[in-house]
Amino acid sequence: MATNSTEVETLVKSKYRHGFYTDIAADTVPPGLSEDVIAMISAKKDEPEWMLEWRLQAYRHWLKMREPNWAHVQHPPIDFQAISYFSAPKSDADRPKSLDEVDPKLLETYDKLGIPLHERARLAGVAVDAVFDSVSVTTTFKEKLSEAGVIFCSFSEAIREHPELVRKYLGSVVPRRDNFFAALNSAVFTDGSFVYVPKGVRCPMELSTYFRINAANTGQFERTLIVAEEGSHVSYLEGCTAPMRDENQLHAAVVELVAMKDAEIKYSTVQNWYPGDEDGKGGIYNFVTKRGDCRGDDSKISWTQVETGSAITWKYPSCILRGDRSVGEFYSVAVTNNLQQADTGTKMIHIGKETTSTIVSKGISAGRAQQAYRGLVRVMPGAHKARNYTQCDSLLIGKECGAHTFPYVEVKNPSAKVEHEATTSKIGEDQLFYCRQRGISEEDAVNLIVNGFCKEVFKELPMEFAVEAQALLNVSLEGAVG
Amino acid sequence: MEPLLEITNLHATVEGTEILRGLDLTVNAGEVHAIMGPNGSGKSTLAHVLAGREDYEVTDGEVRFRGRDLLEMEPEERAREGVFLAFQYPVEIPGVNNAYLLKAALNAVRHARGEPEVDAIDFLKLVRSKMSLMQMDQSFLNRGVNEGFSGGEKKRNEILQMAVLEPTLCLLDETDSGLDIDALKVVAGGVNSLRTPDRAIVMVTHYQRLLDYIEPDAVHVLSRGRIVRSGDKNLALELEERGYDWLREAASA
Q1: What angle do CA A274, A279, A283 make, to 5 degrees?
Q2: Contacts of B91 in chain A (CB under 8 A)
Q3: The domain containing residue B222 runs over which residues?
Q4: FRET label pair with B69: which of A321, A482, B132, B245, CA 20 to 30 Å apart?
Q5: What's the CA gap between A264 and B147, in Å, rounded?
Q6: Between helices B181-193 and B151-165, what is the axis angle to 10°?
């Protein structure tokens, strides 16, 4: 940690190489967005010219775009000039010295989730010694990966070390101009992850942001790029079940996945950003663009997500099924409680022949929360015998929440087969009473029923994630009944 | 000896309509009681009020269970104290493993009794022995709770749960309805295996048929929310022959 901030300071103090002038030399860029600010971010990260140019083009386009308003969410207008677009990691002096100084409520949650002690300190932002348990784990982990030829590093490092790969694939799935928030991210992204799996390699372990050094402080405008070459296989885990302390209200990440012929990418997310308090104060706005491109024949991309956090979630992990017989999957559990809002779903774009997609979406709404499923299944004229199956279930807990479904289906090939099933149910008084009559408390009964409802999605998660996800759901729905 | 269950002048309404109108009933440990009566007489309401269903409002009267005020307790508390209701229409809970629910229930009950949690191996041993009693296939354990079960399977599952949880007071709500004769014999066998000196069974039923297999110590006829006649098993036979009308007239007179 100490090394990091020294590095950043060095960067900050160095002169901008690209001829822009500014007199700011602090760790945090003052609020506001301009070409100067973008140049400064790029300079702080020691980026090459092409990267800066790429950012500036995104920014210039973003200026001409308008914030979308079609999502079924409500929030006050975001003042993009009031946001600070770069902040260096906090120095140790500003951090809590020990867990004793951390909000007891946060600690209580860690306890319920069974987070190991040394992890708690890291998550709560406590200044920890440079040598702690996970460092040695990380080292072993890195060695194993490099033996297999897998590149797994931070995005900044990838720009420095593997510029040819980044240039080739960056923006090739989510173009800079794709949408308002993607354009914003392209202009100002701070860091993220880069994964490259060479031809024929089966990644020897699940890749997790958890193990990545410098994982902290990349959250606000995160950029992830995963490329799986022909015949390769990779499973990537994003996020953490523990609520992360974060000062940034707006999160606009972009994730791009590229799967070549016969390659498979499995991308699992557990998202638990701060949802705001019971009255909806505070909380993260999570506006994410995630898209996978099944570029080669017989490739497969599978998204699994458990979304319980954030005040507002706006997220549609999608698959472009370009290769013949390619497969796209989307498994989602989204939980909204209190005043949380979520508009989430997926897009499956069938281009290649005999492409198949599966969508299983489970939405749970409690309190006064509002949730929408929004999905698009598009079958292009050339997608002979494309098939889609969509199942979209909503569970309501209490009387004041809402669930909405917006399925869009566009079929331009007559041989395609598209199925859609949707249900909305209330957590039954009958089910609750049945469990309670067997001696199970009301709260445990709700957890039991909700976990049963989500089972089809949980079974898609890697084992250890699935267990954590269940615990997380229980914590998220605490007090939802009664 | 103190009765296991003592109901005095019980009045209960559902959505503003009075269903139970001054019901009295005393059940001692070791006894099997059958509550019979025409549709709408309040049989199922009685079972649900005793189990603590919230849609039913108790407006008057008292229920004492092992000397304690039953009506004061939450449904899960009653269950842990030993009140078990075998539902007429057991609800489906999709995705929740049958074995998982049963283990959670058993541990909740054991916890209340001050007993340690049962481990997975002992639990399986216990459940398997009860399943063979109920002639149920092992695959039931891994299916969703009542999910896709036939009517008969659901009823067997209720009795299986009862046999595992070993309650003190078993309430059976029309357990015989929808069962063919073979299934009825199996279910009755399960119930009879639970007849012990320290346990009581109260069966709500429409037909005498069930009583051929589970012989009651007392039979009560419920009409318009009150018990209008009590007797031994011969009363059930009389009802089978004469119907309920003669008692209904007696009640309104």
Answers
A1: 20
A2: 428, 430-431, 434
A3: 5-252
A4: A482
A5: 34
A6: 10
Q: Which residues of A touch B80 (CB under 8 A)?
A: 439
Cβ separation of B79 and A452 shorter than 8 Å?
no
CATH code of residue B109: 3.40.50.300
**Measured CA distances, B246 to A391, B6, B229, B233 (Å):** 55, 28, 11, 18
Mutate to test the interface with A, among B44, B48, B76, B85 (most CBs of A within 10 A): B76
Q: Is the pLDDT of residue A416 over 60?
A: yes
Query: Hunting for tokens 């007179």 — which residue is that?
Result: B253
Total number of domains constituting chain B: 1
Weakly modelled stretches of chain B, pLDDT under 50? 253
Determine whether the interchain pair B91/A434 forms a contact, defined as Cβ–Cβ distance below 8 Å.
Answer: yes
Closest residue to B95, CB basis, from A442, A444, A455? A455
Whole-Å CA distances, A447 to A442, A478, B203: 9, 9, 32
In chain A, what residues touch B75 (CB-CB under 8 Å)? 433, 436-437
ipTM over cut 0.90: yes
Q: What is the pLDDT of residue A49?
A: 93
Is the Cβ of B249 closer than 8 Å to some Cβ of chain A? Answer: no
Question: In this model, does residue A213 exceed pLDDT 70?
Answer: no
Encode pLDDT of A236-277 as tens digits: 988 755 555 455 577 888 999 999 999 999 999 887 777 777
Instruction: Place A199 in a pLDDT band, splitting at 50, 70 and 90.
Output: very high
Question: Is B95–A456 a contact, with Cβ atoms under 8 angstroms apart?
Answer: yes
Which of B84, B87, B101 to mutate: most A Cβ within 10 Å?
B101
**Per-residue model confidence (pLDDT) at position A94:** 55
pLDDT of residue A312: 83
- Say what the pTM is: 0.77
Whether residue A119 is predicted with pLDDT greater than 70 in this model: the reply is no
